[in-house]
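Researcher: Predict the fold of DUF421 domain-containing protein.
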Amino acid sequence: MHPVVHTLVIGVISYLVLIVIIRLSGKRTLSKWNAFDFVVTIALGSTLSTALVSTQVSLAQSITAFVLIVALQFAITFTSVRSRRVKNLVKSQPTLLLFQGRFRAETMAQERVVDAEVRAAIRENGIADVERVYAVVLETDGTFSVIPEAGDSDSALQGVAGLPTS
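Model: Structure tokens for DUF421 domain-containing protein follow.
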């Protein structure tokens, strides 16, 4: 088979199979990225790329690789829901960057976040005064959650690293 024809045929079939596999694997495969999700996505992309341009790799091998990557992703996420140790290995912990209107400079330095990024997140939430923000959390996917005011409890902050105990 001519290499261009190979790329067209294998590309279309691989792409369609990959879509079916991802749809069957559930929403977790397409969730916001953490480091683990990033690796899975890169692995899938690399496998698709190899399937498209390499005449040395068969369609069966490509499909097997797709299924293997998604199956491993499923197994690890399934296990991480049931095992704290696996969960801690796969996912990072959300981190408190600002609490009761005060920046947590040491934590921000550890997370490589500057105050301008936190201020931007606060502005995006329509808040003008940093001092009026109860908390800003760096989530496991790299986004910022801004909590404008304290509630009766800090239940939404449970599991966030750096939360002072009272």
